[in-house]
Structure prediction request, 712 residues.
Amino acid sequence: MNGQVVSRFEGQKWQVPSEVYSAPIVLRNGAPWNKQDLEDLLEETGYRFGRNSQNVGWAARSQTKVSAHLRSYIDHLGFHKSERRIFSFQNGRLVIQALNGDEIAEARIEPQRIGFLYGGNTESRQILTYDDIPKPLMDILIAVEDQDFYEHWGISLTGMARALVVNFTHGSRRQGGSTLTQQLVKNMYLTSERTYTRKLTEVVMSILLEYHYSKEAIITAYMNEVYLAQLGNSALHGFAAASQHFFGRPLNELNIDEFALLVGMVKGPSLYNPERFPKRAKDRRNMVLAVLKGQGRLSDADYNRLIKQPLRLASKKKERSIFGDYLDLVAMQLSRDFDESTLATKNLRIYTGVDIRAQRAASLAMQRQVQVLEKRDPKLRGLQGAMVVTDRLSGQVRAVVGSSGQVYTGFNRALGAVRPIGSLVKPPLYLSALATGRFTWWSKIEDKKLRFNVGGKTWEPENYDRQTHGEVHLYEAMAKSYNLATVSLAQQIGFDRVGDTLRQLGVKRPFTMHPAVALGALELSPFEVSRLYQPIASQGKSSELGVVLAVMDQNDQLMKRFDQHNDVPFTDAVLAVTLDGMTKTPKIGTARAAQAAFPNLNFAAKTGTTNQQKDSWFVGITGDYSSTVWLGDDDNVPLSITGSSGAQNVWIDFTRHVNPISLPENLPDGAARFSVLDSQFEIAADRCKEKTTLAFILGTEPKDSSSCFWPF
Prediction:
């Protein structure tokens, strides 16, 4: 028995699943923000508004400003100290200041835990050290559960005798005489059976535990072990995890009445669960407060004030499983470096690139817009969707939505819905033409009927409007998604070259190049489409998509850092010119509805619709995000929506909720913009009217210029 006590206590006491964390939320000076959005964000991340804004985890607001004492945190980049910041709003822009009035470039809200890996059927727990335990909580626990904790040797003879008398008098078990040490032994070592043999074993093991270990070690283990709730298949253990679950805040930020509520639950976790039985839980909390008053630990005034406090539980809407699809990506990436048992039991901390604001906005946008479409056309009932949002520059995946439902479905369409991409293939195709140096966005091409022999069969592509448009500029052909002009361009540069470009941009799925691929007969998942567009969106700064940033152990030691590879055989200039050409789609092409929604936003876009309208696609690229949206039916049936009338609406909804910024005006070395006459390949003077501003790879721009001054 002695060996069992020591080995269990000194070994790994708890098998705790790995915790997955979001990226820190970076608030940048000058970014578009409004006051209400910032207040909502602070509340969502567990900051409490009140008069104690000088305390960590608290915030305050006036009519024009918000202040917050931001929490410290540790991640793979090191320790980030807590800081007080004042936020004001000028013309829709955020201004961040220190207490002395100096403007600050950025402020960071700590990473948020978004879930566990392989923790669905295990325990929910956060491990505390002795120094982590708030002293008020320790004092309340001892006052209520074991006043003689620091004097006894594991058992209380007076307590056991008192319980024996009460139980004998009533003829049933009405009172327990267990010390905190005995409760810990019962939870860690023994079953819940009620026999004299088991009770005797409990007594002996409690004495052994006290003999081998200090009171500090025992109370710390108790704080981590105590059972406080059942959450589906997961048991909630420890005060730290309970604080996050019930109050949405770290344990050290709770008030006395909140500590009293948690301590009160120890006696009956199911009986006093505040979510299920709020009145009963409040009465139990007030009973604990009465004990503190009776022991002289609370004044009459404080007691009368605290018993009137509402429970103030955290809103459970933020615990809905909106991160399930993202966790699929995390598990997929880590499976190459860590075995499942390690991830399920070793309490690793996994830091990812998920942006909780972007994830929530993407999930809600998908739900809202699919509901709108289904209501508009009952034949769309069962419409599904997926969305992948990446950081435009770094390629970190910021959000993943795998279905149009309100909860995680288990089938992640962002990874598993492999469908024809339609006109989303066109920007890479036009990039291929620009890279040859023979074509520019001004170059003209015939949009006319074509006929191809494919495998002994005749293939005659058509435009969506079943019309031809004669000679058009390349930027017009792409913006308006002209199929005939596009396939004619592919024929001129060579279909094999187009296939090579797709592979160079990141398409790893095998495909056979034939003319129809130039119009989107290439099947990819939304995640693969996002990877295809990343080099273009980032203008060559990133090519792979990143999910996990780093893994740390429970002692804050870095175990593995994940670095992205960047290898794109195209110059930054040609990628930037391609991206700039895509900004014409909202201005004159198939994404005009998106431009109307954001008239002052400079962004790039491409719509996509496949044969028989079975798939609705949209790619939108702003200054901060590159987003891919897909809508379709799991049974692959024709739909009544196109890329413009379906997926585009999801992107518009999403973008309205993430404070978008425009693409930068500057182009990298090797590229520049010129105003060019519509009718003649000449640089246009300011006075010229019929002109268009286009980006060029330097050396391919017009060599002549026109003053547009004609003598009469």
Notes: The mean pLDDT is 89.
